[in-house]
TrEMBL record:
PROSITE patterns to which the protein is assigned, alphabetical: FAD_PCMH (PS51387)
This protein's UniProt keywords: Oxidoreductase, Signal
Keyword Signal appears in the UniProt entry: yes
Family to which the UniProt record says this protein belongs: Belongs to the oxygen-dependent FAD-linked oxidoreductase family.
Domain FAD-binding PCMH-type stretches: 122-307
Name assigned to this protein: FAD binding domain-containing protein
SUPFAM superfamilies: FAD-binding/transporter-associated domain-like
Signal peptide (residue range): 1-21
Gene Ontology molecular function: any one: FAD binding
Superkingdom assignment: Eukaryota
Length: 575
């Protein structure tokens, strides 16, 4: 089922759940069980839908059926394409979320490399689903799932480190084709007064950020959104409900701070609007309570800000020794608070064995102003790394213009693989008072990859932590520090478990940079010791109360989601 089970319970749980003769009423029904709906039942469902039912399979499966087929050639050509994979109902951005580990350690997966000698298996990919194109499609899918007590998962792009859109033996609602962009010069939230009007863009459940950025620029606007290869991340998933971080969050606040309105289908099939004037408790909870928890989104309306020119500084250095790494990272960390307070956003990366690089994006700032701020840092990098470092500058008339050249042309880049992340929010207090200590902690985590997303602080820190449901830790943090572990296809489940143990150890080390172990859930670990505290903080109880007001039967349950601890590790049976 959920990838959380693959390794937290993959060696302790049981695969027999899919083959059991019956399913207790407190458990959801899965494919392979006697309770699973008949073909006749699915045919009846299909007659109420606008599209045929989909039968998701692993994207590499054509290469097992016929390695010389055109279908296999197409898979090989696009296997790592960030925009192609979301178009496949069984495609996920990272392969490990498509796989499943049985109790005996056998891995059910479908590797592209057929010479590894493993059969192609369904893994954690749902076997059937609804390709929804309208609210009525979603309502029909919800009615069917409830009537048959099915485990339900919602998938848009499959770009998810928490595997919330995967589910072994589950019934899928696939929202990827619900695309509908609308520009509003003066959007008034439903039920709001005329003076609440503002420029806005409404995105459909299936829209992706690359398309949205281009659409916004056509109207002289920009939205607060994320970086992603090919612009492939969806606008109405984890970003819209899990916090939402990007280059301009220091200037305009988190993604959820910029949401004006949601429309969604609840577990009872009702279509509701949530904003500052209607269903205000739900509006509060959706802005940080996580995706796949309160309902299925139909649309999200975001504030649209005037477009502006940007200046960009990219930097790099060779970390020739441990002491050089400590010195350079300490100096880099000193820039975070003053720069994010100016509304600048940045990213920096440490990639073993010795690569250090990154960038700062400054909105409405000239190149000369940016250079004045960063030229000393460039000289420092060059000197400290023995002539192997520096800063370079670029400008663009709009954020989208730079983003298009930098990210939208990279859709064919490596986006798949087997990856598990963990993250911690860097305390503003520690970044100011002890950058050397923070640098030492980050380096001692010893991850193969470390990303420091310098995109909190600024406006994010100025917004009242009680105004939205997101973890209050965001309001006193200035960066998200991300680490991950990776592995090759075909390695054993024992070897994977060792990678996970390393991730857990590295995560524990990172606690030293946060005053409350806060984490950005969309880039967080599946193996947190206390996911309630880490992902939701003091808001968890309120979020849970709202969850059960709108979804009393817990139709929507996801890994590390609100109320998920009340289910088994497969998220199938109530405890």
């Amino acid at each position: 089922m959920m990838f959380k089970h693959l390794f937290t319970a993959g060696f302790l749980g049981t695969f027999a759940v899919l083959a059991s003769a019956s399913s207790p009423t407190k458990c959801r029904c899965l494919y392979g069980q006697s309770c699973w709906p008949s073909d006749t039942a699915f045919s009846q469902l299909s007659r109420n839908l606008s599209q045929p039912l989909v039968h998701p399979t692993a994207v590499a499966s054509p290469c097992y059926t016929n390695p010389s087929s055109a279908s296999c050639s197409d898979v090989k050509a696009h296997f790592t394409d960030a925009l192609w994979r979301p178009d496949q109902p069984g495609g996920y951005q990272f392969q490990n979320f498509e796989s499943y580990i049985q109790k005996n350690g056998t891995i059910d997966a479908c590797y592209l490399n057929v010479t590894l000698g493993f059969p192609c298996k369904q893994g954690s990919i749902p076997p059937i689903g609804v390709d929804v194109r309208s609210p009525a499609d979603i309502q029909a899918a919800i009615r069917f799932a409830k009537a048959n007590n099915l485990k339900l998962v919602v998938k848009n792009t499959g770009h998810d480190y928490q595997a919330r859109s995967a589910g072994r033996g589950a019934f899928m609602v696939w929202t990827h084709h619900m695309k509908n962009l609308t520009y509003h010069e003066a959007f008034v939230p439903s039920g709001g007064p005329p003076q609440a009007a503002s420029s806005a863009i409404t995105t459909g459940a299936g829209d992706q950020w690359g398309d949205v950025y281009a659409f916004a620029l056509q109207h002289g606007r920009m939205l607060v959104g994320p970086f992603s290869l090919g612009g492939s991340i969806g606008t109405a998933g984890g970003f819209a409900m899990g916090g939402g971080i990007g280059a301009f969050t220091p200037k305009h606040g988190l993604g959820i701070d910029n949401v004006l309105q949601y429309t969604l289908v609840l577990a009872d099939g009702k279509i509701v609007t949530a904003n500052a004037f209607q269903n205000t408790d739900l509006f509060w909870a959706l802005r940080g309570g996580g995706p796949g928890t309160y309902g299925i989104l139909l649309s999200v309306t975001y504030k649209a800000h005037p477009s502006f020119p940007v200046s960009i500084a990219t930097f790099h250095a060779n970390l020739t020794s441990d002491s050089v790494a400590q010195t350079i990272l300490t100096e880099a960390l000193r820039k975070i608070v003053p720069f994010t307070d100016l509304g600048w956003g940045g990213y920096m990366y440490i990639i073993k064995p010795n690569l250090f690089n990154g960038l700062w994006v400054a909105p409405n700032v000239s190149q000369s102003v940016l250079a004045k701020a960063l030229d000393p840092f460039g000289a420092f990098l060059n000197l400290t790394s023995g002539g192997q470092g520096g800063v370079f500058y670029n400008t663009s008339s709009s954020y989208y213009g730079w983003y298009d050249k930098t990210f939208l042309g990279t859709s064919g880049s490596q986006v798949t693989g087997n990856i598990l992340p963990a993250s911690r929010l860097l305390s503003r207090e520690l970044a100011l008072s002890n950058p050397a200590g923070v640098a030492s902690t980050i380096l001692s985590a010893n991850s193969i990859f470390t990303g420091i997303e310098m995109i909190l602080g600024g406006q994010v820190n100025k917004i009242d932590s009680s105004s939205v449901g997101v973890n209050p830790s965001f309001r006193h943090s200035v960066a998200n520090v991300l680490i991950n572990e990776r592995w090759a296809d075909g390695i054993s489940s024992v070897a994977i478990a060792q990678q996970i143990d390393m991730l857990k150890a590295h995560t524990k080390t990172l606690d030293g940079i946060s005053t409350d172990s806060g984490s950005y859930m969309n880039e967080g670990s599946l193996f947190e010791r206390d996911f309630k505290k880490t992902f939701y903080g003091s808001h968890y109880t309120a979020l849970r109360n709202i969850k059960f007001k709108y979804d009393p039967s817990s139709l929507f349950v996801v890994a590390n989601g609100i109320g998920s601890d009340e289910w088994d590790k497969e998220l199938v049976c109530l405890l």
